[in-house]
Amino acid sequence: MSNISNTHERAGGNLTAQALREGLFAGLVALGLFVLFVGLETTQNIRNELVLNQRWGLLAIFVIVAAVGRFLSVAYLRPWAAARKAAAAAKPVEGEESFFKRNFSKIAIVALIFYPPIMVMLFGVQGSLKWVDNFGIQILIYVMLAWGLNIVVGLAGLLDLGYVAFYAVGAYSYALLSQQFGFSFWILLPLAGILAAFWGMILGFPVLRLKGDYLAIVTLAFGEIIRLVLINWTEVTRGTFGVSGIPKASVFGIWSFDVSAPNNFAKAFDLPMSSAYYKIFLFYLILALALLTAYVTIRLRRMPIGRAWEALREDEIACRSLGINTVTTKLTAFSIGAMFGGFAGSFFAVRQGFVSPESFVFLESAIILAIVVLGGMGSLVGIAVAAAVMVGGTELLREMTFLKQIFGPDFTPELYRMLIFGLAMVTVMVWKPRGFVGSREPTAFLRERKAVSGSFTKEGHG
Amino acid sequence: MEYFVQQLVNGLTLGSIYGLIAIGYTMVYGIIGMINFAHGDIFMLGGFAALIVFLVLTSVFVGLPVVLLLLVMIAAAMLTASLWNWTIEKMAYRPLRGSFRLAPLITAIGMSIALSNFIQVTQGPRNKPIPPLVSSVYNVFGISISLKQLIIMLLTVILLTTFWYIVNKTSLGRAQRATEQDRKMAALLGIDVDRTISVTFIMGASLAAVAGTMYLMYYGVTVFTDGFIPGVKAFTAAVLGGIGSLPGAVLGGLLIGLIESLWSAYFTIDYKDVATFSILAIVLIFKPSGILGRPEVEKV
């Protein structure tokens, strides 16, 4: 008995000693990492020369946080996590899923339909604007883009780092054609999709032979080429100034949202003038477009072409041996994915009223791809959750004005938005490498449909 | 003709910088099969470390010889960038080793976003200009070669020779090549795979840091977004040369540098990046695994 407690104590002592050692080491590493960048700040003086500004206090905070954090994680967090994992392994797996979990997507769709009226009720017509526009529409655009990219990356297994190019094609198609020829949104929406799909084919042809990371770099290059052409072809695109004054969409031409128009929406219903109605209309528009993307994806997965995509992802050689034409399979994946990007792009143009190449940088492609992967490639619900967490989370940072009271009035949370976004990408990926939803519903099955763990699906070579 | 040779010199200088960065991409890719998107930002970080060390040295010791100044800057940049890359590998990539292919790609992109924004937050978003370090220009047969260009090319040659020696002649290099060929088998034969991978990241970061210092010296200015474009160009260079191949990375870097400066000299400067990327696409159509890359053999 005494023996056991003895070894236990020694283990405890060892653990503390180890934690102390690792904490100290982490502090040293943090010192090395931050001494130049945090300890010293380069600022311009009046004569525009660079001078150094010393911030040793801030550096000390960084080092202490790293050391203490490491110490606590080794001494307490890790044993606790290990104990919890053991406890979870011992517990039997529950067979029945809760009602909420089973009907998650239906509940979510109903909640989204009632989202704008509830926000109007809670915050008033003007107050709802922020919640519908910044959160609702912003998140839904990314959901739609990620679902579109999911067709290429999640289903067909082709790594596309230049998806934002199709978004740009859609946005500029609407912006330029509506300004030059005065076409309405409802004509240009399908047209923008078709044009983007066409560009998807153009990209698809040269990259048919490429695989893996070669494919990734060429798609990245393609995205950059489109952006650089938008910047430099100033006669048509007006370069970095962008295209402004893009006409608004109307409710199928029945009601307009232009203030001067006789069939103005607010006038027709005797409502007070507000831009919120247009935003609420846009919310339903993007919701419908996103749901269309999801519906098409779900239906396509059951059709021969969708099965061919998934077969291509699993094994290209087997796919070819079974007589599937990989050329058309890849091209359709690229063009259908691009088409939804084009739809989203024309929606983006109509929502902003302004497009410029600034909106279509590589970072956007990276964010969309990150959402697809964090959601658990191929899972529509997971992708929607990932978009809400990542985009909504960073939007939420703009709202955190209470932080100003803690860190002083100079503190601007927006500055830290992308820093936190990047770190969140890393943290979530390390915590859940298979994404938020790691299981798959197979479309082809024998007798009984069973969820398959994401670890059994491949991610493709392309 | 003189104009052409002049552009050739400019292109080779730029290409040397791209080549140094590209080696980091290609080595990491070769050893763990992952595109290290944060590598361009490590390059930027190295440039910033050199900048800050430069400011410290010039304010503390006035009138330090330029050679010493440059050497200390390079050393500090190498150390800082190596430490960063080592930490990043440990925290963001190692937990995902053996996971599926896209997971480390996403953490690398996340790290790239985080790093550039970290510099933006801590050092401010504005351009950081420094006074010219070396300004002598030599005139050889009507072609002007600046001392800066000579230093860059000379340093590149020295680093590449050292590097070639390490990879091909030392036991560390042997361990790296073994890990690259078959990680599991290398581990079975007693190679510390984790350590080898860490060392690879450190080596890549050091070369990128030298490139960052050279870039700062050459252009005299740096900014927190500077990691992206040279990073993408270097990555393009690595792919063009055949990713995983070290001579390929250098060749690709030089090619990209040449294409860029010759295109800017004879056509419009606006479309030089379009030209670079288009040539990449065209080369890959005809040689899908790069110029010196080995085609991947698929086993069924």
From TrEMBL, chain A:
Subcellular location field: Cell membrane
Bilayer topology term: Multi-pass membrane protein
Keywords recorded for this protein, A-Z: Cell membrane, Membrane, Transmembrane, Transmembrane helix
Keyword Nuclease (UniProt): no
TM region(s), chain numbering: 20-40, 56-77, 107-127, 139-169, 181-202, 214-233, 240-257, 277-298, 331-354, 366-394, 415-431
One Gene Ontology MF term: branched-chain amino acid transmembrane transporter activity
Domain High-affinity branched-chain amino acid transport system permease LivHM N-terminal as annotated: residue spans: 18-115
Listed GO CC annotations: plasma membrane
CDD domains in alphabetical order: TM_PBP1_LivM_like (cd06581)
Cell membrane is among the record's keywords: yes
Protein name: General L-amino acid ABC transporter membrane protein
TrEMBL record, chain B:
Keyword tags: Amino-acid transport, Cell inner membrane, Cell membrane, Membrane, Transmembrane, Transmembrane helix, Transport
GO biological process, one term: D-alanine transmembrane transport
Membrane topology summary: Multi-pass membrane protein
GO MF entries: L-isoleucine transmembrane transporter activity; L-leucine transmembrane transporter activity; L-phenylalanine transmembrane transporter activity; L-valine transmembrane transporter activity
Transmembrane segments: 12-35, 42-62, 68-88, 100-120, 140-167, 197-218, 238-262, 274-293
InterPro entries assigned: ABC_transp_permease, BCAA_transport_permease
Compartments in which it is found: Cell membrane
GO cellular component: plasma membrane
Record-stated family: Belongs to the binding-protein-dependent transport system permease family. LivHM subfamily.
Protein name: General L-amino acid ABC transporter membrane protein
Lineage: Bacteria, Pseudomonadati, Pseudomonadota, Alphaproteobacteria, Hyphomicrobiales
